[in-house]
């Protein structure tokens, strides 16, 4: 019998636990820490005052030059501006409040302000800082297409809000910009972003800004000099400001709406999404939207830092890629010679059926976003599929990674093929699937997207080596051509996987001849197998092995292997692991090869520093190797998958400080999505692309995980994982049940997941080498 004191303590403990559980269930955004790994930021990495996939990515910038080491960096002491676009190859519309002597025309070096983390608040959808130089408290939030700024000014008649529209931001200069006074409460204009080696055309972004009180003066400047014109300014290195007289602690709210199509559509976006001046309401709505999406994956138990990292990972997976269409569905098509405004499909109510997106390559997303989005966010996946189908209609190719309506030809191959195969084979089909298939089929032959090497923009590009892949069965290292990432062995291996994915899509769509053709071609990976070294080796056009071969390279790329080396890429046969293991001589030989790589990588925490991806045996800081720990499941060693997945998760991606967590290259949600999958204990080596794909099981970091299933796509309501005896040390599965029935295989099917149910795992500190061996994965892996 409990004493009153013990009973009271128990009640307090229980109340605290219930309180924590309620926060997790109803307000998971509180568990997100946007400042994780911000010491080494990338331009598109950090966007605090942003909605999920928001067109507006509003946040402070402490550095404004370069795609890397730019944006918000934690250890910097000055804020240069608050800019609205932190996207793949795009940036724009920097804003800054100042007081006192006017310095806007002198540039950011002159008007930047110190700030401190001591009085800073950073949450999903909200950011607050105090600009010490000016005594201004700046608060930021947003809708999807409208940035909200609330500035609390000191008393004075020289309170300014700068719009440094012509300033150099991130990837390049601004060709020209224009700002015009519309009224004493509104200005409007544009910035023309200069092309980059990746985004091949100059690209417009338009804006409209409104203020909660009339301004007293409009000022403009160009090339460092104030303009005599008092109502407009345009040209290179141009910008503008509005001046207010403010009383002590007076708040001025600015609403800044964006569009990539026109000033008129920016104004439509403003009026549709922000018809009022209630900053706190917009902030609350942003929090609610984040909670709605974050709560689709619900966890309880586990260490607090693991919960923080999980929801931060999930936040990144829903943040890094950006909406570029207007509220009415207008978007800018830049695939032709001139910009064209297009329209997405509308529903019966006249509203857009989906958004258009801007995103870096889906290269490697088959082991991250493809899996996570298809599980918990199938509606998002539908939108991305529609975007790519529209780009095929507009410009003739399914893209690898569009920026501002441009093809960018970023990275290699056709990663859209596994994306569509996963979507279609999981029942995500809210797009023109036949048009998608024809576009993907085109990409699989000379003249398609695979034929474009990295950033190879010419229409007759051949740097992807598809003519050799078709004729020889591999891409030779001496293929010639132009463009980047011309790494023949990596191309061959990725093309073979993409062929298999296209075969899976063809089978599901009843295209039997194509299914058999692409399935046979997916075996091309065997053409690079060297039985002497038991590694994949680059070949030359004459069929000989490439001279100077080394298992490890130096710097970014080992010869023949894109941002990697053969020790990692040899494992890149996600569609036929049984075949690869057979080449090694069997389960024991392959498991020894793989285990040695992990054992040797422990001191490096399983990652390579950026720029050194070819120098390590295991690299969980870059896409080609992010399935390696799960591959033990295919060699009948599931306990080794459990061991190494747990170690990789905690050591490579477990940090929750500003000085670690993603190693500086989170890649628009890919590493975040991978972190979620490792933390909840579900993964798909084939990327989910198979007609009968499976989820491989490892131990979750939480007592309970619930994935809410979208009723529009799946028959079930939730899929739940319960982990008994869960702890950081207990990474080994001792036994399992699925919906109450004993489970002795290390996987569940997509159908079992989609129907909902409960997977219960009993965990322990030592491996149970008898669990998970039924129905071996390598034997059931669909080769057909």
From TrEMBL:
Record-linked NCBIfam families: aman2_put
**Name by which UniProt lists this protein:** Glycosyl hydrolase family 92
Region Disordered: list its residue ranges: 764-784
Q: Which GO terms describe its cellular component?
A: cytosol
Domain Glycosyl hydrolase family 92 N-terminal residue range list: 31-259
Every Glycosyl hydrolase family domain range = 265-765
Q: Which UniProt keywords apply?
A: Hydrolase
Gene3D superfamilies assigned to the protein according to its UniProt record, in alphabetical order: 2.70.98.10, alpha-1,2-mannosidase (1.20.1050.60), alpha-1,2-mannosidases domains (1.20.1610.10), GH92 mannosidase domain (3.30.2080.10)
Q: Which InterPro entries match?
A: 6-hairpin_glycosidase_sf, GH-type_carb-bd, GH92_a_mannosidase_put, GH92_N, Glyco_hydro_92, PNGase
Query: Which Pfam families does the record associate with it?
Result: Glyco_hydro_92, Glyco_hydro_92N
* One GO term (biological process): glycoprotein catabolic process
- List the GO molecular function terms: carbohydrate binding; peptide-N4-(N-acetyl-beta-glucosaminyl)asparagine amidase activity
What species is this protein from? Pirellulimonas nuda
Give the top-rank taxon of the lineage listed in the UniProt record for this protein: Bacteria
